[in-house]
Structures are given as C-alpha cells and as structure tokens.
Amino acid sequence: MSRRPVVVWAVLLAGIGLGLFFYKVVGLGFPLRPAQREALWDLELRLRFRADGGPVKAALAIPETGGRYAIVDENFISPGYGLTTEDTGTGRRAVWAIRWAGGEQVFYYRAVVQRLAGRSEGRVLPVEPVRVDLQDSQFAAAYALLYEVVQRSADLPTLVAQLVERLHDDSDPNVALLVGPRAGQARRLWVASMLLGLRETPARVVRGVRLEARRRSASLIEWLEVWNGDEWLAFDPTTGQRERREDALALVRGGTDLATVEGGGPETLGVAVRRSEQSSLRAAVTRGTLINPDLIRFSLAGLPIRIQEVYRVLLMIPVGAFLLVLLRGFVGIKTFGTFMPVLIALAFRETELLWGVVLFLIIVSLGLAVRFYLERLKLLMVPRVAAVLIIVVFLMLCLSILSHRLNIDRGLSVALFPMVILTMTIERMSVAWEERGGAEAIEQGVGSLLVAVFAYLVMSNHWVEHWFFIFPELLLVLLAGSLLMGCYTGYRLLEYWRFRDLIEGEG
Amino acid sequence: MIPGPRTLRRAGVLGINGRNGDYVLRFNPRRLYPLVDDKLKTKRLAEEAGIAVPRLYGVIRAVHDVRRLPEIVSRHEDFVIKPATGSGGNGILVVTGRMGDLFRTAGGDLLTLDDLEFHVSNILSGVYSLGGQSDQAMIEYRVRFDPVFEHISYQGVPDLRIIVFLGVPVMAMVRLPTRGSDGKANLHQGAIGAGIDLATGLTGTAVWNDLVITVHPDTGISVTGVEIPGWAELLRLAACCWELTGLGYQGVDLVLDRDLGPLILELNARPGLNIQIANRAGLRHRLDLVERHLRRLRTVERRVAFAREELEELAREAAQSA
User: Fold this and answer.
1) pTM score, two decimals?
2) Is the ipTM of this complex over 0.85?
C-alpha cells in the first residue's frame, strides 16, 4: 500500500498552513507573542428601590463602547422583568419593565470594561448647546456672570475654569440666584453648561464611574465637558481645570438622570468596580479590532465576543487531540475512550490542575465503589449506566455543597466536569476491572489521567492558546501531523518494554 | 535490558501500530468484520464449509424467546451458554452436569433454571457484547478437552491460537488456564501462553505473567515439550479459515475435543501480539516470507506444508541476516 498520497496531502496541508502563518506574521504583522496584561475592569451597577405594587418601569444609564473604553462583555440581572436597551442622545440605557411588582426590587448590570490606549473621548454628537428659557432676573444674573467671566479669560479653557470657580462662590448673589440654595455639584455643573449654552458653546455634564485598581464600592463622579469646535474637553467639577479624565468611564452625558423609576422609589444606585486580571487575550483581540482592522478580516476577531470565547476553547480541542494521538500512537499510553482525556483536560482548564485532579479522583473512585456494588445487583446495561450517571451527578452536587460549606471555592467548579464522560470512564474502568483485572484497569485509569494532565498543560498554555486563536491555519499543520501519524507503523515506546523478554530469549 | 528499535526490528517484532497499519487495515476489509464479531455467523459459515465447530443446540434471539431455554437444554446433560458477540471470554456459562433440577457449573456452583434464564436475559441486553448493543445467546456443545492437557491446565478449557496470514498458519500457541486466570484462557488475565513449533507441534517456551516458565505454576507439570495431538489437522483447519472469511490476517481459536478432535471456537480480526512473547519470536519476518512466496501457496495443502517445512527456518535466517 502506497503511503505517497498521505505524504503528499501532509506536505500540502502543512505548506498551506505554514505559508498562511508566515504571511500573517511577516506580511500583516500579526503578533507572535501573547498580549500583555491589559487594563480590564469588572463594573457592577446596582439599582435598588421599593415597588409600589403596580406596573414598574426602571431605567438605568449604562456605559457603551466607544472612545477610550470598550464593553467586552455585559449582562443584566433582574427579578423577572422584561429588558430592553435603548440608545438615547445622552448614552445607552437599560430599561426594565414589568406589569406588576411589589416590595424590594434589585437590578444588576455587570460589564467587563476595557481601556483602549491612545483614544480620544468618543460620542461626538450631539454638539448642540444647552438652551434654557430663563426668567428675567435669572437672565440678567446669567449675563452679568458671563460677562465677568469672559472679561477675565483668554480662551475657552480659561473661561470654563473661571466659570466653574465662580459658580462655587455662594456669596455672589448672581450665583445664589442661578444655582439656588444648598446646590450640589451636579446642579452647579448644569448651570455652567447652561451659561455656556447662552454663549452658543455646547457643554454637558457627564456622569460616570472612576475606574481604579481595587475598590469594592466605587463612587459616582461627574465632570463638565465643553465642545471647542473639534473635540470635547473635560474639566474638573470643582476647580474647573482642564484635565484628561483617563480613569473615568462615562455613563450618561447631558442632563438625564442616571436612574429613573416609574411605579416605585426611592431608588438608590450602588457602584462596584474591580480591576480584572483575566483574559488578556480577549483584551488583546478587542484592542486589535479597533487598532488594526486587518485583524478583523483575517482572524476570528471579527466574530462576536461570545463566539470568540467558544472558539478559544474549541481550538484547543484539536491540540489536545493531536497530543493524544502522539501519546497513544507513539508512546503507547493506554486510555479509556479515545478522546476522554481531552475532555477531562478541558474541565481542568476551569478547575485548575490540582483541584481538577483531586476532584476527578474523588468522583471516579466513589463512582467506582458504587459501580462495583451495582455489579453485584446484576442490573441490565442501560439502566445500570443511567444509575451510575445519576450517582455521579449526585456526587458532584454533594461535593459542591460540602466544599461551599467548608469555604473551598474551587470545589464548586466540580460542576464543570463533563458528567457523561465521567460516567463512561467509571463504566469502562469497572468493565476493564472485571475483564482484565484491577491492575490493568488502574493502569488505564492512570494513563488517562496522565494524558489529561499533559493535555491540560499544553492546552492551557498561554502561547499555544494565542497562536491557535490568532493563527487558526495552524490547524492544517496539526491535520498534516495527524495524517502522518496515521501511517506510522513503527514501534510504540512502551513496546520496547513489553517485548523485552522476547529479545532476551533470542540472545 | 530494554531493547532498542534496531534489536526489535531485527527480531521481526510486530508492534500494535505495525499490526494495525500494515496488516489489519490492508488485509482485513471492514465489511468482513461482522463474520467474526458475531460467533453465530462464524459458526454457520464454518458449518456450511464443512469445518468442525462445537455443535449449536439453540439460539435465543429475543427476550420472549427465553421461555424456550428449558426445551433447548432439556435434551442435553451439559452445555455452554455464551453471547454471540462477547469478547475476552466474558459471559460464558459452562454447565457440566445436572443435579436434580439444578445445573452444575464448571466452577462448581449449582444454579436453578431461573438463574440460567437471568443469565440469558443479561446476554440479550448486551451486558457482555462489544459495544453494549443487544445480543443473542448461543447454547452449544460443551467441549471435553483432550487428556493431553489434563495436567497442565487448571479448570477452564485450554485453547490454541493460530495466526493465519493469507491462509498460511504463521505462529501458534496454546493458552492454559491457571488458578490466577480464573479458568479463562487469556494471557493478560494470567493464563499461560506456550509457543508451539509449527513443524513438530511440540510446545516450546512458555510465559506466564511476564515470567518465562517451563512447568505449570498450579500443577508443577512441565508445559514444555508437550506434543499437541492431531497437529497437522489443526493447521489444516486453521488454514481453511482464510477462504472461510476472506480476512487476510486473523487469529484462529481452536479447541481439542476428546471425542471430536479439533474444533474452531472463534475467529479474531485483530489478534493480540503476545503470541510473539510466548514463541520468543517476531511475526514480521514470517509475514514477509508469506507475501514473498504467495504465488506458490495456492492450495491449503501447500500452505500447511510451507508453514511446517520452510517457514520457521526461513524466518530464522531472515532474522540473522537482518
């Protein structure tokens, strides 16, 4: 039988794969190294109010992708409400509605926010100045104040600085008239934007969150933005000094409230921000799509984030499978089921290695114990496997509850194990135990676990993950390798051990 | 201690990849597998070809047939119940005699008719079958093994495994159950494997759990130098199996019955490689020789003669010159 077609195919596939790879690296400048840790935050907004017992509609300002920040992922949690998100002129809003609700209501908005380096503030529109109809007395006060401020300034930034400073001076009767008694920061800033509107200068009050390293309950902040004809400039709310506001994420721009509730109240808004350390690859890809559009056209980065996440995992499966091919065909390690170790390795990605191995051993050995008892009951095959499956799920449940009680968070991740795979492992292991003896069964079990650990180490490697995600054409190289392994008829490493006696006899 | 690749290749040892890639995949078309995976089909095929097999007393195909069991077994003092697609000797129940309404098994247990029916239902549901698919239960003649093996096997039925390549028997061994193997004749379960000289039919070296031995560990009787009776007939039967199934590379399992002589038990499309250890010889040189001399090996007689008179000698020469 000729091996030539296989070799030809292998060379062809590997050639195409490597060719594309080199073209992307050299020609398109795709990064070979996985990206550095990126600035990512977990943002949580919590809206809480008491519903009156009737139809309820609650709106909450939420951040949007654009400008310096990108929303990498987000989700909404509400007690049975219908959810819509709407784009208003002032930003994005989540609107929850329900026909009837009573008592305490809590909504959560959670997002993973990423800072994009070197980007200017987004959302240019609307650039309309604020227009307000003022009473005569206020009108006079406003113009008096404006006149004074314009006289003392040279350009727009100094004008805004003067204006903001003046508006904090409550002893000035003009200011008192305009901002009213016991005015807060927001009110003063709004008056500033209104006064700038009289000069036909677009200005707006922006409310948002400050993104800092670790802060369990962050505070909401506000600042003033003024349009200088080309871009929005940010100003400190108390000093009026020009500033860059790089650490602030805007939620709403313009006069609208952060949260409004119809059919309940009073509402309280809580904010939590945490610097997130994960997913630097995810961050890199998002950044890539905004900086280098070529990346979108030629990579998975063009897909929605959720699908990308799926592929990030899926692409590791061929890697694990190829490793399995090598370990089985070339080394000769025996495993239960062809791809079982790869799936176990996938579960290890979530649980992390040590816990993964511990949990795997606990479940399989407990499952085996039960399975041996079932063997004595002489059950028919399909009901017996179903019984083992039920017991496996039950064991997972118990482990999760137990570890939660003991405050071992990792124990909860047992739920990520593929239970059908575990069941089949237990079933095959006990069958092997009956048919071929405990030694052989344990050998194969240990072999499976060993391969799973190997596969995990490779599949969770940052570089491997990055390379296959950015260069999926490398799969063709794996394919070529698999084809070649398919016609490897040489000895397996462990066969040198197996046939050692045969040779001694010859000698 | 551990041989290198060159040493193994010189000895002509066949590895798993080599067996699968160079022989099983090349010479055993997938569509022929059902002929050997289903022992019922093998048996029918052999009977049609006039090849000796243990006589079939009856088949139970479905659960509602189980009530036919009493009728099938009533005519026979002893019998064997086995799954049609079982593997590794699992699910085989050997009834050696009766005691009133009870059945005595080879292990000495006494079973009721209900127990037998439960066993049959289990077989039907696929407990012992290869992939867990539903199965059929065969009730057949119980082999009374030849007295030659009486002192060198512990319970169970000793059987012979012959690798047949393109109709030429290339290597043979006898598998002797031990106390450790629980009466089963599988090497990895602790049975003894003793190589058989193709020319003479005399047993040679034997292995047991990785140990090279000359006496049976349970009985203390020598397992080396035992002459297998009717050796020529055994080889002839094995050689016929190529025409029977069309599988180029197969393992033929035979038993020696006291009264009926050699019978074919089952065929295997991917026979194990331990036979090389039992014979202390590699398969590959012999397989190469068969391919080289194929043109003059047209009849069963010529193939058997080639195996007995030339094969081993030529293989030894090939190993030396390699």
Assistant:
1) 0.66
2) no
